[in-house]
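Aim 2 progress. For Sodium-translocating pyrophosphatase, the working sequence is reproduced below.
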Amino acid sequence: VAVVVAAILWWQLGSMMAVGFLIGAFLSALAGFIGMTIAVRANVRTAEAAKEGLAPAFEVAFRGGAVTGFLVVGLGIIGVAGMYAWTHDVATLVALGFGGSLISVFARVGGGIYTKAADVGADLVGKVEAGIPEDDPRNPAVIADNVGDNVGDDAGMAADLFETYVVTAVAMMLLGSIIFKQETLIVYPLALGGVSIIASIIGSLFVRAGNKTKYLMGPLYIGLGISAVLAIAGFWWVTQNMLVDMVLPFTLTQLIWATVIGIVVTGLM
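Predicted structure tokens for this construct:
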């Protein structure tokens, strides 16, 4: 499907639009593959760590999710920044975003349909005909159900995260090119994205669960808070260094406050 769409784009809009679309589709599929691969391995290790207690299982599961998240957003910012550095054309980034969206839709919708079909089939055969409990390993259809969970919830989630991240970055860059038409303001969102990734990596290092920890959201909120503070500091530094000499219809303080509001709203959600 992606090849057919790329051929149509090549015919109607040119080769670079087609190339951008294919790159977005490839990176989205790669993000899904990475997400599913890491999840499968983290599942086993989390189950083994759970024998020792809640805290070890939490840390293994969190590390697996963190690795997937950082790889996915890393692929996103590398794809967008690399494509723009190559073409210096924001229009090709739109094609890249649509390529990521195509794979995301297939992974989410296709994986969801497969998962539900396998789930219903396994329950019908297991409970009604064979009289065995749900998710019993004696039922072969349970394997298909678990595979569907991996495809829809792991690969689909990673591809969806990639698509959301890329489309958001492309939208900000597109608005910057339309309103301001200045290179610095076009790449400014990418700089903020890079700062956010670094802040999140540092914040994830502070997510620790002790042996007596019962409320697992507590360590997660600590990591989120540290990441937010570091991100705000990084946003201030980037804004002051990139935009200090530019004439804008707003002040740099107002721009920084806008980023702070965005972080606070995200944390509250």
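Helices lie at 2-13, 15-49, 54-87, 90-130, 141-179, 183-204, 217-242, 252-268. This observation will guide construct design in the next reporting period.
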